[in-house]
Amino acid sequence: MGNSFGDRLRQERLARSLTQSELGGSLYSASYISLLENGRREPTVDVIKQLAKQLQLAPHSIEEWVLPVSIEETQYLLAALYARQSWDTRDYEGATRHAAEAARRAAENRDPVSWWNMAYLQASALLKSGEYDSCIEVLTALMEHPLSTESAGLMVRARQILASALLGLGKLPEAIAEATAAVQQGADTPEEFEAYVTALRTLIGALAESGKLDEAWTHCVTLAAATNDTLPPQLAGEIHWVIGNVAFMRHDVPAGLTHHAMASRLLSPATDLARWAQFNKATAWVRLSAGVVEPATLEAIERSELAHSVVGANIADRLEVSLLRARWLYLTGDLAAALDLLQEISAQQEHLAKHTAGDTALLLGKVLKASEQPQEAMAAFNEARDHFALAGATDRVALALDNILELRASGLSRHAAS
Question: Which phi and psi angles does 91 have, rounded to 5°?
């Protein structure tokens, strides 16, 4: 059976078909129950008594959950502790390793709830590390487990991460399908509000990357409606971040600037430096895409570079930040420096999602064309077209084709391969 307070609490709650809000009643919020279940808070005597009343159990029986009852359970608890400590210190490789060990021991102890929690943590750490294929492999097992198939809340959490992993691989249609399913389930699962919001953000991102900006904006309206004064500032900031991204991509620069300014005020590098780094990367990218070449854009690039260097970003993130710098160099006329940087990124494109590899090739083609190297530019544009086609980014395929046709029409590519 369960071998930690949080794991056992979740197991007993699910067995009674209670939501986290229902279990907390009028005394404890759903978010506090979530913290207890994930081992982020220790219960007091009063909390134990109240939860025992809600679960119709004797208080002493709940108190016993805190204590391991065998060597095997102790080994699980140690592995789970190390996994959570690694996660908290952003050691995602360590979190992956320890969570996998904890999941294995939970399976041996025939403790499905603990196995699910640790497998979920393992998948989350793999996602953070950019190990998308391995993440999907773990998630497949999670989603096939009876706990997931019987609990809409757990399925929302698993689907949300799966959608993010698919987006990371550049598999846009698949990411849209999984994120849509997570959003549909999450809308009816109040206790998983944060997972629902994250799934909605992932769906908006995948739709935007696919060129479906009107559909993405429709979901932005839904996301904005979910924003209220009770949301944690970090979550509210991320909502404004996503809405601003789509506004920029729709060429609504004033709305983009407004939402990103609000995101910048709400997001705190002290709270989550990694997310702060991602925000600055995203805001710099959409600003450059909208042609906003101004000091504030350069500041966002520099903040992203600095923050990513501090948090120890994975190689895909580092390459994407370099791509930002290359785009800035191109737009400010430093073609030689942009070309050198793009060639370095292209040599490592296997670490990039397909649509990002396509963006790299497309920018490389533009730099080569401006540098009067038409044959090389044509090859880069063709490569961009192929990457975008594999990613399912049809609007960007059309953009690559426009550049190919323009180059052919200019007469500069007479000897270039088509």
Answer: -90, 80
b/e map of 293-306 (b: 16 or more CB within 10 Å)?
A: eeeebbebbebbbe
Distance CA 349, CA 341 (A): 13
Q: What mean pLDDT comes out for the span 48-53?
A: 79
Q: Is the pLDDT of residue 145 over 90?
A: yes
Least confident among 57-71, 133-147, 269-283, 288-302: 57-71
DSSP 8-state symbol, 191: G
Contacts of 175 (CB under 8 A, 6+ apart): 163, 164, 166, 167, 202, 206
Q: Are 346 and 364 in contact (CB under 8 A)?
A: yes
Residue-level pLDDT at 52 = 78
Helix runs in 38-144, H state only: 45-55, 59-63, 71-88, 92-108, 112-129, 132-144
Domain boundaries, the chain: 161-226, 231-306, 314-418
Q: How far apart are CA 83 and CA 382, in angstroms?
A: 45
Which homologous superfamily does the CATH classification assign to the domain defined by 314-418?
Answer: Tetratricopeptide repeat domain (1.25.40.10)
pLDDT in tens, 222-280: 888 877 777 788 888 888 988 998 998 888 989 998 999 898 888 888 777 877 888 88
Which token pair is 277?
A: 């780094």
Tens digit of each residue's pLDDT (9 = 90 or more) over 80-101: 889 988 988 888 999 999 999 9
